[in-house]
Predict the 3D structure of the following.
Amino acid sequence: MLQIDTWKRVLIWSVCVIGLFLALPNAFYTRVEQSNDAKAAIELGADTPENQALAGQWPNWLPSSLVNLGLDLRGGAHLLAEVKVEDVYEARMEAMWPEIRDALRDERATVGTVRKQPSAPDEIRVRISQPEGMSRALEVVRGLARPVQTLSGVGATDIDVRAEGDTIIVQLSEAEKLASDDRTVRQALEIIRRRIDEVGTREPTIQRQGADRILIQVPGIGSAGELKDIIGTTAQLTFNPVVGRGTDPDVVPGIGEKVVPSIDESGVFYIIESAPVVTGEELVDAQPSFDQNGRPAVSFRFNTSGARKFGDYTLENIGAPFAIVLDDEVISAPVIQSHIPGGSGIITGNFTVEESTNLAVLLRAGALPAGLEFLEERTIGPELGQDSIDAGKVATIVAFVAVLTFMALSYGLFGVFANIALIINVGLLFGLLSLIGATLTLPGIAGIVLTVGMAVDANVLIFERIREELKSAKGPARAIELGYEKALSAILDANVTTFITAVILFAMGSGPVRGFAITLGLGILTSVFTAIFVTRLMIVIWFERRRPKMIEV
Amino acid sequence: MRLKLVPQNTSFDFFSRWKVWLGLSALMMVLAFGSFLLQGLNFGIDFRGGTTIRTQSTQEIDVGAYRDAIAPLELGDVTITEIFDPTFGPDENVAMIRIQAQADSESVSAATVTAVEEALKLTVPDIQFVSVESVGPKVSGELIQTAVIAVALAIGAVLVYIWLRFEWQFALGAVAALVHDVILTIGIFSELQIRFDLAIIAALLTIVGYSLNDTVVVFDRVRENLRKYKKKDLKDVLNISINETLSRTVMTSVTTLLALISLYVLGGDVIRGFVFAMIWGVIVGTYSSVFVASTILLWLGVKRDWSKPSNTAGNQFANIDA
């Protein structure tokens, strides 16, 4: 019989109410957006009356997640960059040569004289004058290898060393290349993120794509060219002597000194000497590590000239602080504990593991580690985006009204039920999209319009089936029940197949296409839910009240 | 009083001329494929690289003047089209300029774009560049590959799903209908030279989904009726099933088309190609689920005894009525 348990009724209505509640902010888009921006600004310290007023536009107890608007709707710039990871191999090999030379010189008696041969940029070729000492030479060079941490290879080292006649060939190992590529891309990603955050635009998307690509989308920026300029600016890392520390930003520094803020202690300013001891250009590597007490720290290494300058300076200034300055902000200002001769050192502080990892990234992040090649550039003007939104809105409303009218004319009261369900359906769809923070693109709007058209399909299937069952005169209650029962397999099969294509679209697509796949896929979920549960519940409630002897569908 | 697009009890014979329908579909596919081979698709920059610049000005657009302004830069193949749309205001004159990928660079040359913009500004002082998009040849190659894989994957996944839920004959029928729809859609894009870009692939996959939706609903009824009418000819069972679902087929197509047409007219020119592909797909998809998928099912024949789980090969083709 036509019965739905009370708990099911409560559950169905709750889902609808929660969905519509979540969708609510989108109905007041500009207001909620302003309020959210103001709240974020207040959080960052800009607690002005204007911001308070803007923040008050939307009450706190209401949900405030919005559907993000894609670049094609809001305007902005899109870049797809490929990181030239091979650039790094060359620098690594260059830095390796002095080490190899020094190590082999110590073995001059067995290997003879050492000479670097011309070679491809990602390898070093060294000829030794006494080939009979080759096994010893290889042993020595292999001794320079460092272990690589990888998921697969335990015991892998960072270089491959082999001999060809009297020549030693040193290359980065495959494991190290993989690890290095990954580091390079992450580093580039981190630098790009920092650069764009400095500009302070709303919701930039900076994502890694595949092994060596970075996708950058920044809404509201004038052009892709402007965005490239922002990314291209190099970060300046310096190591400066510290003169003083205080909380007054307006203190007048002495000649050859300047005042810079601290990056993580707010309100703290350092007076440093303008001339750096060493600059980031001389830093070869920085890695997260641990100090002797097992606390997170960052270890770093300079190249030869950097090492000499740093060694001399630390020898003369034990006990004095020096500042690590990135783009005129002090990252950290450790005290020199001892003479640091080898060009490598360790920065300790109150780090968590995560902070030390970030600091290592930032230290390496002096400049982009490798060149970027831009494979795709798109600029969409804000007017075009606004035009698209306006057109999309009108089209959606007209589509909606047309479908609603058509359904009501075709199915009468049942059509009205289906229409209410359709409105709930679109509400739920927006609620879900806001909940997962999905991005609405222009094809996404098309997806919603298509969902509106197709969402009635499940109801049409059911209503047509009820019509057929009514012909066999089993009484209205039985006809409704059979209608739902028998239409179910068709509804499920039809929607599962469409859902499969939506999933494939999502997995294979990118950008706007993906936005379309999300709205289509979620639209299928919500429309099946509203057709199977919501309209049924409405029909059952109506039926219980009226108890009609006969119905017309 | 109810609006009824399809009378209550229909009994059209959809298979009296099934050879004609199948032949017609085959002919259309050959024509579509021929057009594709002869003319090729009008690929957008997503698929062949290059740059498109969308301009807007209050001045009337003189394509010749634009062309003369750009010609000295020697950028190879440059296409300039004026765009008309009912949503544009009176002072909105929009043109689309497409520049081919420059041979010497893997990536995108910002200098080229700037040069074109400067040249156009001299000719049309109030010109605005509302969108500029460039895709390097490296990415466009990959995009084609991904798109082809996506369509193939979708069709493959559907084949497997229907095979599991129904029988292999149903799966073949459904997939034949899908291939038919995809080929006809590609055909119309090549014949009318509508720009074929990444969004059209999304439309293609949606068409696959929609057509399938339709086919599956008919097949579901066929499966049900095969159990119900064990003694009837397959042809009659198919006819009954299609007639029974006809009202629903028409209703759903009409609601979807209503929604799509409003988007086509009012949604702006940016997605018009995309919406056109979907409208075409809905029409072709509805046709193909009756005249291709079901006809092929009739042609292949199906297992008739659905009460036993095993497929006895003996009567597999026993009831083919042809």
In short: Chain B touches chain A through 76 residues (CB under 8 Å). Chain B has two domains: 18-43+140-315, 50-135. Residues 234-266 of chain B form the longest helix (33 residues).
